[in-house]
Amino acid sequence: MYKLECANQNQAALGSYLALNAWILYVTAASPGPQSCPSVCSCSNQFSKVVCTRRGLAEVPPGIPSNTRYLNLMENNIQLIQADTFRHLHHLEVLQLGRNAIRQIEVGAFNGLASLNTLELFDNWLTVIPSGAFEYLSKLRELWLRNNPIESIPSYAFNRVPSLMRLDLGELKKLEYISEGAFEGLYNLKYLNLGMCNIKDMPNLTPLVGLEELEMSGNNFPEIKPGSFHGLKSLKKLWIMNSQINLIERNAFDDLTALVELNLAHNNLSSLPHDLFAPLRYLVELHLHHNPWDCDCDILWLSWWLREYIPTNSTCCGRCHAPLHMRGRFLVEVDQTSFQCSAPFIMDAPMDLNISEGRVAELKCRTPSMSSVRWLLPNGTVLSHASSHPRISVLNDGTLNFSHVLLTDTGVYTCMVTNVAGNSNASAYLNVSTAELNTSNYSFFTTVTVETTEISPEDISPNYTCFPGHICIHICIYSCTCFLGHICIHIHMCIYRYTRFPGHICIYSYTCFPGHIYNCAHNSIYSYICFSGHICIHIHIWTRAHTCIHTPAGVALVPVPGAPEQPQPVRCQDAAGTTVSPHPHQDTPGSLSRVGIYAAA
């Protein structure tokens, strides 16, 4: 009995031993061989850090340990990254491929790099963004593509890596095109470098709602316009040095309400618009040095603002370049005793307007570019360019724009213009009436005379035919405005109603400067509009020089000597029935119903 029990125990022990050995053999077979370092590399930290720099490598060496977290392959001669090259490196966090000769990265080249945090591809020969290779890099935070001969950045170039927080696209000196949707999907991006890319127009950065730092230095931006930084409500640091900036338009920085640091050094700025930095409530670091500042009345507001808001750093913001007697003085040292300044003047004041409900409307208020413009609405609301309103906005030139007017918009609108020396205001009355379906009732002024003649078939162009039963109109306006408080406005509006045939809208606006002889600019806009719900628009703009001469009878328009021969004028009638001629234009439409509208102020 005892022998039988011992035999059973020995048999059980043998079975366990055999099972253990089988498991060990299975694990050994399923596991990779012992970790080793490629002979052309150096490894440390238990093979988690592998460095293969300056080894003359033409391809990624095989045998990189599977537990590698940091892989440096910089300064070699690698030209191609093939698909699945790094497939077994599931723990890799940093991959450095900079300063090679990489021309192509295949789709799937970075497959398996589920833990990759940083990818460096700078100083290579890539001509396109390898968007397809970025698939499945769900943890990628930093991407460096600086100094590659990339020629364009297409739409959705980085939408496969929405996790990106830092993107370096600096020194793309061959870059010619950035798509409007290039940065779509990068809602987590915090830092973007587009410096030294020869960019001439600010790209669309609106998708970058979380962007905090933007480097744009070393480009070529002659002007910075309002809307250039639209949507960048989180931006804290902006660098635009050495970018040939000549002009920053008013309201250009209104979207940057969180900005803390702004660097505009080493540009061609001579002045800045009044209150340019007013929306930047958190700005504490400003660099304006190495600009040719013109220290006159337009710089006084900036000098005061620097003393008030940047008091601890008088050297931050440069010195006067002109006039000669001011050269070398710090901007913060300029004060009003150095100049004799006057309040701003309004070059194109708003005019009373009668308009039908639902139409687009504009109230002009053109002023010197260095002054600030705000509008006071009938309900007491004050609007500036940065204001948010569903229908009403202040355009870059100071114009108050209505996307569509309502009856409740009726009232007095006041344009308020400010500079360091004072304020100027101008008001206009907007009268909104119930919309009329009959186009013959369209009226902008008060005196109307109707003359009807027969249409000449040969005068009708067959190229712009409206649908049967639809009506097109032709409106022609010109005006001459004298400044410095003297207003002399002479407006003719001729309306041609065409049944089933095209109409035009041409607006002639003459701007006259003070003196006995006035120089006028002539701008024409022709717009073909077919009513009854069908719109077909054609626009043509041309200019012609004229001279405005003061006469006892008013303002006469005569051609400038040497100007091109003028075409035949369209003739209208004023309220008294006297034939008057608005400025000639190049169209000679067939005559139907004519409505001549005359107004003088």
UniProtKB/TrEMBL annotation:
The signal peptide stretch is none
* Main subcellular localisation: membrane
- Annotated region (Disordered) at 566-591
Query: What PROSITE patterns does this protein's entry cite?
Result: IG_LIKE (PS50835), LRR (PS51450)
The family database entries (SMART domains) matched by this protein are listed as: IG, IGc2, LRR_TYP, LRRCT, LRRNT
Q: Where in the cell is it found?
A: Membrane; Synaptic cell membrane
Spell out the protein name for this chain: Leucine rich repeat containing 4
Lineage of producing organism: Eukaryota, Metazoa, Chordata, Craniata, Vertebrata
Q: Could you tell me the gene encoding this protein?
A: LRRC4
